[in-house]
């Protein structure tokens, strides 16, 4: 019923850019905090960025100034613009949706691979 479908992953070059997108269905998108998380090989899953229903953003220190999260409450999508990519950005990136009022109502996408290499 609930679906979060990521797209835009792939191979990027150091210093280059990639744009990820997540399309949500089956939820009242406008009341969900949306986020991007990533998990590198041998590492724990970590927060990359979040954006509230009203547009307040939060970023991990490691991506601040390089990545930008945005949302479109008409298209029910959330995007992650990744600039000045580094090899350490290599990970599986997951889209996350959390109900602003019911924190236990949380959903995850299947993930999309991002590889940064020359």
Radius of gyration: 14 Å
* Secondary-structure element series: EEEEEEEEEEE
Overall pLDDT confidence? 97
What portion of the residues fall into strands of 2 or more residues? over 45%
List keywords for this structure.
118 residues; mainly beta; seven-stranded mixed β-sheet; four-stranded antiparallel β-sheet
What does this structure look like?
0% of the residues lie in helices and 53% in strands. With 118 residues, it is mostly beta strands. Strands 2, 4, 5, 6, 9, 10 and 11 form a 7-stranded mixed sheet that branches.
Topology:
Blueprint lengths: L2 E5 L2 E3 L5 E8 L6 E8 L6 E6 L5 E3 L7 E6 L4 E6 L8 E9 L6 E3 L3 E5 L2
What can be said about this structure in brief?
This protein is mainly β. The chain has strands at 3-7, 10-12, 18-25, 32-39, 46-51, 57-59, 67-72, 77-82, 91-99, 106-108, 112-116. It is globular, with a radius of gyration of 14 Å.
